[in-house]
């Protein structure tokens, strides 16, 4: 028998073979020692695993899990019970003599208990020097019934018994050194020595631990080649499980380890690779693909950078519709001022006929152009010294 076994909290990796007694032909199971590796994580991870047993003609064995060595030894030394029985066994008819003394130490028979030794002295006694503290409240109890407690509505006296309020610390005892009946404390008894026992000495009659004498084993044999075990005639599975999705496949028994390794590479390794690939997340797949094709870093940068640039552009750029709307509102306000004969900055009062009010936006544009020219001319007039005639001429031009 070879393979994993989980029984409750016990995890095993069995290797059991049947050994035939060369003397009487009886067959006995031989169980290998436990693996050195922990098996809990491997058995419970719900992943496929490759179990490999290698038997060598020199009686050595090796056990691998996923090509990792987890147990090794020899068929002669690392199995229970041992392949070869002992050459000698204990005589089943031998009995221990009545005068056989197995005690290494005995009480000293010459020891005598001292006269002042009191076996009944207590370990602690009352402290005679202790006095009751001042302010001790003898008439107050350390705990009193809670006056604010109320019996529950669903309390059934017949079923639950008589209700009693819970106890709380007595408020009167908070500032006092103590309440209730005062009792002196206990101290260690200097006369206490415990029960007297005689000291132990070496036993002069000690003969050691008795064991039956050894006799030749009538069933002794020596099999130096347990590797030549019984033949494998078929393969079967011993299963008892309440867990689903436990599957077995790709089983091979061969005399060439290279054939088994190639078989595992063609089946198990490919299966593990496909499972790992199918279980990868999208991010893991992208990471693996990027390692294979580094040029994808540029694609990632462009793919992430372009949306960011577009978002910033549309969120931060000035709105042309708002600017046009504001400009139109300014023109309408100036047109209203013109209609109501309100004074405008740097523009002389003029009489506007009613028949000119229908010119609309064209007049507003002309007025804005005139305002810009007026501002330029005023700046030139403030920085240069000109004759009054030039100012008059400029106003005439401005009026025209």
Question: Your description of this structure?
Answer:
This protein is α+β, with helices and mostly antiparallel strands. Helices cover 30% and strands 17% of the residues. The protein contains eight helices and 15 strands. Strands 1-2-3-7 form a four-stranded antiparallel beta sheet, with no helix packed on it. Strands 4-5-6 form a three-stranded antiparallel beta sheet, with no helix packed on it. Strands 8-15 form a two-stranded antiparallel sheet. Strand 5 (60-65) and strand 6 form a beta hairpin. Helix 6 (320-339) crosses helix 7. The N and C termini lie far apart (119 Å). The model is unreliable at 344-361, 383-390 and 392-397 (pLDDT under 50).
